[in-house]
């Protein structure tokens, strides 16, 4: 079995999840090449050294330029905050590496466009992928197939919410995810991006949008020793500073197909820890998904006999379902991190085949373009169309 | 115990539900005056005579002018399609009767304004009410109280859907509810009106909106012997005609308070029989309601101890809950029609007190004004504000 | 349309529910004869007079002997505590009346046997029925049909619980339902009787049982002004007395068919207000019911395609479902009291046809015989068979 | 950081789950010693060699005697079918190794007694543990704590089911799990053992039981190339053979504390893939767990204010919850295999401390003794007490 050397940039929340995926993928799936965890990369040497050992990397680098220059590394994985995606990805592509980029592709549409151009320029032998990991929930894959194969008929409605509450406490500090210069935007780019990507995956392209963005909590305590952590936990200082991104966003969409869509993302929904949920209604059925119960898909089929119709709750853990046969027997549920393992499985298959798997950089750009249109619509108060690549 | 004579106009779906309420209210609640079911009114004599007997009315009328002229009738209840609300209500008010008007108040904003003016002109002794019956689900009352008394803190988000599927079959005929001249609008005025009224009740006034309206199924078989029925069931002819109302609508809202709102109503959501559902997020908690499980309210309180937090499902059937103590012991659930009984209970209390209970004609107008703004926003492609009364 | 005069004995919890059923049945169902609510019967004249007026009865009696002697009464309904069922039913049968007897048929097996004999002796023209009302939940009817028509295949397992918590507070007083001389038994005869009757209805006869009965709270405050109320609410005195019935019972069953059964009934399950729930597993599918969501039936069909299997939640409110077409459109849910209306509908049909509808007195006896076997098994510590009639 | 060499016997379903735990534990938890995956053991050399590589073991052995003799191995993990547990465990203990034994401890009570004696004789420096992994679901740990710390008050009721359907198809072949000589028993020892262990963990010792065991499908196709696989999947031959274990069992229990218990385990519950569910009722509250939604615990607290009571669904994924802080942020759910990681974490802590963590061999014996009493009660038709160690 061939191997491919992997270099991962970033070792906080996403870095941990990506590392786990590289460790696990060949234990459960047949992959060729298998990933070899060559080096973890981060600027703080003590931190990256400890993380490399903890997470199972053979070595580490403190400068991504050195990482992308290594001959023993064929795949560069970028799992840093969005403000550094572009520079690392461009360097890796320039070095001829395959690239996995954590979502969102970039913090701005211009950056995303430049990255897409670079990926295209890199030629067919260079595989690129954006890690919208929720596409690889087995239940989400099943949902997509039921629509792609026509089971649900013509799709009329998409409605999705991504609700969290981790910053509901106004004393939660001003971490990097609340600073525009680092995160690009707040709920919009972080979590609305996920449900928008799922909409693109399941329903198709969004043609125009109109929306809102709100910052309900306008200032917060500064973070003690502000760093590059996940930003999901932090210690608060006494002094306060301004929140420069949105806590919450809502938008309406018209899909190119004619379907309607509603989207809402907020970090201020008490009790909703990580509630990424969507419903689709087609002419012949409906389906409902909720990430907090990610092993389940609820499906209604209008063709079921009269009197016997109802939403069925499919426990998506069976050999007949996407990915799940590689894990455990039916009914033995999977967790959050499995989605990353599935992504790496598909990425390695793509490298083998010389084909960039979805979500591609085009998908990443398209998502960015719609988020950009949402921001423009907030300013204009009217419907806006996403830019073309 | 005093009695008040009641005359009801309309005897189809709403007429049956209102009749039931008059029959039941004094059996379960203390009311003074008690309703006396004097006359049912409809144009078709055979139909109205049979219905009067079936539904428990002492007599009937075939002309609403005669009904409103009767001395033995003190309360006129208008449960016809929206296109006749104005004329009947104005006649009843002119005759000095108390008036209950089924929602929506009218098919157009101009009609609603005229009706509101008439109600105001009728003076304090004349009690008026619009029957948005879902305000009187006990769980909805509880929801409203938890917000009114500050339990949920500052309200940031409202999201509501009203999903149905009764016209999902394209062979379902072109009943009155799909004709603009009779129904005014489709999903918008029929069911979005309900969730908008609930938003007004629970969160407060909507300040501006932007939305969509869609007619996915553009023509349908004509109805055989089209009549004044509920329009929820009908027989189809071979010939087709155009659907002139929306099947579906979505809109975003900004509340006067600064909260955001999302609304969606559709009659094309397979498997959603009567799914009127809303969620509210406040700074201190959240709540979730769903009409298909109307005896339950899900509530999250951010003040619950760490590690013990979660949405609690309250079975809203206890003596401590609104209305329910009058019915059965805790856990013995109520159904759809009970909401009408509660409305009549409150209306009779209002008549006793000489005070129009909510939802008032002002509330009905305000709802109509927002629906009107939604329609305008569809045309303009921009945010629109509701008109003032 | 013919009428039948009805006399009802008892006017507390069950009396209210039965009265409602007589008032409502002809408003929603076609019945012939229609019930005429002639007289309510109770020993306390002031109480029964007020109740008769409140509940819609034309008159009242204070002595059941007078009630059963009235020529204008053709149907006697016995809704008193179990200790008086036998005497009233025997008197009514002796007078040639049709009889509806609230469950359980009697407090002891000997009484039940005597009542069954009397019903049989009364001849084919006299219709009798025991009111196990939960058979008439539409979802329960649907469950029974899916088994009777073979959809679920060979039945292997029944598991049922009836959980309540209304006496969980040890300061709740010693009402009649906790006194053996009035109630016969506690959780066993009151609520285990219900799930046992459902098992008989859905799966078939129980052949043998072994069980437990427990009285966890052994004494309670006496009731202030102890009376014939429902016993579900009461005021507590300072002095205490012994609880002489069980709070809780569990038992295993072997059905005659070879299926296994588990049963549990308790009044000490905090949070379970009225949780009557069962699950059936057959060779070809499963179904799940829960009274707190009585409008739903969850059904699993093993014949659904691989990968698309799951419990479907059927909203049992459609025209295709039992009883529900007479009420409201699909998705407009029913409540607890509707089950009584359905029972009276079927009883009146039985009177028309001259056939005693199920649950018959035989069914009532069979239920009593199994409860009796449970009590014997508690003493013997071994499996016991129910007595034959 | 110190290391301990691990040798694992068995590499099918349980072997895969245990291997994963050794690979993962030090990536997420601080452990000292850390496990070093020295050797996997199995009789088929080609199979064990391939598995060792797939699962991350440094080497392999084909004879457990050689495994337990190795100096570089300090911990022997026995994950074979129950019929070989005793011999391997005794050999490992004789060699002075720490031992983890997959549940059930043994196939017979006599074997379990002998193993317990050996564990006791091995002295305090030798750590032993039985792997009832479901104790280490975070929600189960939370449940146990809420009872141990008195939150739920005096416990009155335990009811548990473990429902599966993987052999519901009568054409599923006669794998080792359906042969008494290999598996000891069927649903009883395989899955009832789990819920019994949970009952012991959460409520305390069972004092007596009475039950049933059934074999509904009495013969099945032989297995093609019958082997030591998990037995959860297999290929069927044409010839049939007799099923010698139970498909299903039910039993009642009296706990030493006075609480009542009901238990049911079956492999013939269509739609229930892996439905291990229990409910506990105490004087002050209730809780409900279901393995198919293992990240959730439903808790009812009787002290919640009147009108605000309800089962709360706790998403047991927060830093405040057992184990979960080591994984991902709140709301990012865990899966089945995480329970094994938690078990190894606690085992390694026990090795560090020189203390055998629960479930100990005493716990394993106690479970076996109750299962034995269930079997005796099936023969005697009466209540039976578990043997003492």
Helix content of chain A: 25-40%
Parts with pLDDT < 50 across at least 5 consecutive residues of chain A:
none
What is the count of distinct domains of chain A? Answer: 2
Fold-level CATH name of the largest domain in chain A? Dihydrodipicolinate Reductase, domain 2
Spatial shape of chain A: globular
Strand line-up across the major sheet of chain A: 8-11-12-7-13-14-15-16
Q: What structural class is derived from the secondary structure elements of chain A?
A: alpha/beta
Which CATH class of the largest domain in chain A is shown? Answer: Alpha Beta
Let me know the number of strands of chain A: 16
Key descriptive features of the protein:
homotetramer; 389 residues; alpha/beta; Rossmann fold; Dihydrodipicolinate Reductase, domain 2; 2 domains; eight-stranded mixed beta sheet; six-stranded parallel beta sheet; 16 strands; 32% helix
Structure commentary:
4 copies of one chain form a homotetramer. Chain A has helices at residues 13-28, 45-55, 64-69, 85-94, 109-121, 138-148, 180-183, 187-202, 338-353, 361-380; strands at residues 3-9, 34-41, 59-61, 75-78, 98-102, 128-131, 155-163, 206-214, 219-223, 236-242, 248-255, 260-266, 275-282, 285-290, 296-301, 311-315. Chain A is α/β, with parallel strands linked by helices and 389 residues long. Chain A has 2 domains: 3-134, Rossmann fold, CATH 3.40.50.720; 138-293 and 295-329 and 367-380, Dihydrodipicolinate Reductase, domain 2, CATH 3.30.360. The two termini of chain A are 38 Å apart. Chains C and D meet through strand 7, strand 8, strand 11, strand 12 and strand 13 of C and strand 7, strand 8, strand 11, strand 12 and strand 13 of D.
């Amino acid at each position: 079995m061939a191997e491919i050397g992997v270099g991962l940039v970033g070792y906080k929340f996403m870095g941990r999840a990506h590392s786990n995926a590289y460790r696990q993928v060949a234990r459960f799936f047949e992959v060729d090449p298998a990933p070899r965890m060559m080096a973890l990369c981060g600027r703080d040497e003590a931190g990256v050294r400890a993380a490399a050992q903890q997470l199972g990397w053979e070595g580490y680098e403190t400068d991504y330029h050195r990482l992308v220059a290594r001959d023993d590394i064929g795949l560069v994985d970028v799992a840093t905050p969005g403000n550094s995606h572009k520079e690392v990805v461009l360097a890796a592509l320039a070095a001829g590496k395959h690239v996995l980029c954590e979502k969102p592709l970039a913090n701005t549409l211009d950056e995303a466009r430049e990255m897409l151009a670079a990926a295209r320029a890199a030629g067919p032998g260079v595989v690129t992928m954006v890690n919208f990991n929720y596409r690889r929930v087995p239940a989400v894959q099943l949902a997509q197939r039921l629509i792609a194969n026509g089971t649900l008929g013509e799709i009329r409605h998409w409605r999705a919410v991504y609700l969290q509450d981790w910053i509901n406490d106004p004393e939660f500090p001003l971490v990097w995810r609340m600073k525009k210069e680092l995160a690009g935007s707040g709920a919009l780019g972080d979590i609305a991006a996920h449900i928008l990507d799922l909409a693109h995956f399941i329903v198709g392209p969004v043609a125009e949008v109109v929306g809102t963005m709100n910052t309900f909590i306008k200032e917060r305590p500064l973070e003690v020793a502000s760093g590059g952590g996940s930003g999901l936990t932090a210690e608060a200082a006494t002094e306060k500073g301004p929140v420069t991104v949105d806590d919450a966003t809502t938008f309406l969409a018209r899909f190119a197909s004619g379907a309607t869509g509603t989207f809402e993302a907020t970090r201020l929904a008490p009790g909703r820890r990580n509630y990424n949920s969507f419903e689709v209604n087609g002419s012949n059925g409906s389906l409902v998904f909720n990430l907090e119960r990610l092993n389940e898909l609820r499906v209604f089929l209008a063709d079921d006999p009269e009197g016997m119709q109802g939403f069925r709750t499919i426990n998506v853990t069976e050999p007949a379902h996407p990915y799940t046969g590689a894990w455990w027997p039916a009914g033995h549920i999977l967790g959050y991190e499995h989605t990353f393992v599935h992504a790496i499985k598909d990425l390695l298959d793509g490298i083998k085949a010389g084909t960039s798997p979805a979500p591609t950089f085009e998908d990443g750009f398209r998502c960015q373009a719609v988020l950009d249109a949402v921001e423009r619509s907030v300013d204009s108060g009217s419907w806006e169309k996403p830019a073309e690549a």
